[in-house]
Amino acid sequence: MDQYTKPTTSRKSDPKTKPANPPADAPATSPVAASMVMAEQNRTPSEDVLAQAVAWLGAGKKLALVTVIETWGSSPRPVGSQMLVSENMDFAGSVSGGCVEGAVIEAAVTAISSNRHQILDFGISDLDAWQYGLACGGKMRALIMPLAEPFLERTNLAAILSARDRGEAQTILIDLARGQAQIFAANDNPPAHLSPEAQAGFIRSSTSDRSLLLDDQNFALNISPPPLLLIVGAVHIAQELSPMAKIAGFDPIIIDPRKGFATLHRFPNVKMMHQWPDEAMAELRLDRRAALVTMTHDPKLDDPALVAGLRLPLFYIGALGSKKTQASRVDRMKQAGFSEGEIARIHGPVGLPINALTAPEIAVAILAELIAARRRGG
Question: How far apart are CA 142 and CA 57, in angstroms?
Fold first, then answer.
């Protein structure tokens, strides 16, 4: 077993389905509809739509960006979905999975020629939905915005993508009446002119990686890299959790100074840091979009991570262990100077209570609790 006693000189003084039958008169799914569904399954992510916009603008194309800002019923795409349209009707991305793209493209071309933004409602009938392989119809409201002054243009988009590539999340606050946009970093405070309810929505959008309609006037478009998931301890449950977390959209990092545990053989295609947790965390850009799970059961490794995590605005902190282990952990955190309210941020025992027994089941329970915390904003 690796020797991993941390030198005392570097320690800190304190111790982290099958759908219902279609209508009888619903047409059979056509080859065109089937191809649209397949295209939707391989859709371009919103961030790549923006990258395509930078490339097309650099080539001299005139463009409009279409963003879903509100949905009703079983709309096939969520709020924040985007589609890029050129004056020649080239397009990238999707806002409905194919149901209303034709009408959206026509409206986008009109917005380009007039250089005026529009907010339009689109309906998807049940019959149209069945033609495209969807269970039922719905409605969506879309913002159609030319990518030119005074709206977002190439310089703005290039800066947004550059920040995303550095691992920085951003929120684009769009004034729906004027179509103008302001760009905010992940930890920026909401602008003062927003109502208290809209300010709360702005923060929720930033912390949960969700685009949100804040009120009738303002829309928060979230542009984010995958949220970081710090897993302290290269244990067997971590081997199950890290690939599951990737599938769910997280960017996992294994932190463990024991190089015999954290190996490429045990954790292929996963980032690893062979440092003490608090030292590794100090090197990372951590904000309220990051999460921490400790798994070693060893206070020498877990506690420095928990202490560092409690001093950061992480959206989730979890610690593996029994209720007895958690009680001891709470006592140590009190001795380290944390209040009961601060310590209550630690989810322990970690994971939803689903009576999980095996490593994969425990990983599912942890991931489910992570997702719930992320989507409710902490």
Answer: 22
